[in-house]
Amino acid sequence: GAVVSQHPSRVICKSGTSVKIECRSLDFQATTMFWYRQFPKQSLMLMATSNEGSKATYEQGVEKDKFLINHASLTLSTLTVTSAHPEDSSFYICSASRGGLSNQPQHFGDGTRLSIL
Amino acid sequence: QKEVEQNSGPLSVPEGAIASLNCTYSDRGSQSFFWYRQYSGKSPELIMSIYSNGDKEDGRFTAQLNKASQYVSLLIRDSQPSDSATYLCAVNIGGFKTIFGAGTRLFVKA
Fold this sequence. Notes:
- The complex is a heterodimer.
- Chain A contains no helices and eleven strands.
- Chain A is mainly β.
- In chain A, the strands form two sheets. In chain A, strands 2, 4, 5, 6, 9, 10 and 11 form a seven-stranded mixed beta sheet that branches. In chain A, strands 1-3-8-7 form a four-stranded antiparallel beta sheet, with no helix packed on it.
- Chain A is globular.
- Chain B is mostly beta strands.
- The N and C termini of chain B lie far apart (40 Å).
- The interface between A and B is medium-sized, with 22 and 23 residues.
């Protein structure tokens, strides 16, 4: 069964709205989670690494003030797209590794399809 | 810059044939390797993990790893139309950092 739960699966909203996406690890603790973005027919792009109890690490070119990440507990990370605009429309996916071991595979949530009108 | 390279495809095989997907990586120190399948509009799902040189079989899937050549492959036997998807090769390069290839699109023709 699913080991990572992501919610919501789909968001359609007006330009200027802020959107929060939740990512939960199920039955295991995840000190580190990851947030990806994927445009149609393109590869996964890592946006940031979410670290429990500390600041997220953002990849080059990703605006940290635009994409706010909070990892307040060992099972929950949230991504907030602030003042979203049509160019932010994309498929956002989170992942986590079971067991907190770095050599374990990442398990992905089902993704959130964000459409900004 | 550490990289994972895959042929983007599409790779087209007839139903029942063996599909062979290949991946090369640049970080010689990598120890953990993964294959994911991603259907259109869906998130990636893990198919196989491999950590040691040689072959690892799981049902119709076989992962092959050659660290000396920095090469990892995925074989799909008795390919089915439902195997049509994009296959992502992923390599852990240390800590929690995993690099994903751009993926190979596979089409299995009925």
